[in-house]
Amino acid sequence: MSENRLRKLLEQNRRLHEQLELPRIATSEASRSLITYVTQTRDYLVPSVWGTPPEDRWTPKRSGLACCNIL
């Protein structure tokens, strides 16, 4: 019983050491990076901010009527 418990503790200790060695960045740096990304990356799902997306030449042109297929 004690050998099994020791093995579990050693495994948990190894996993905790792996987590400790993961690279980390400061919260201020992560926040700055997120703000930069959000302000420089266009998100056309928010048309009030970024406007409508440009025409995509690879999508087929649709006629004036939209169609919907229901299966």
From TrEMBL:
Alphabetical list of SMART domains matching this protein: G_gamma
Domain G protein gamma: 2-68
Keyword Membrane attributed: yes
SUPFAM superfamilies: Transducin (heterotrimeric G protein), gamma chain
Pfam families listed in its UniProt record: G-gamma
Record-level Gene Ontology MF annotations: G-protein beta-subunit binding
Protein family (similarity comment): Belongs to the G protein gamma family.
Protein's UniProt name: Guanine nucleotide-binding protein subunit gamma
Gene this chain is encoded by: STE18
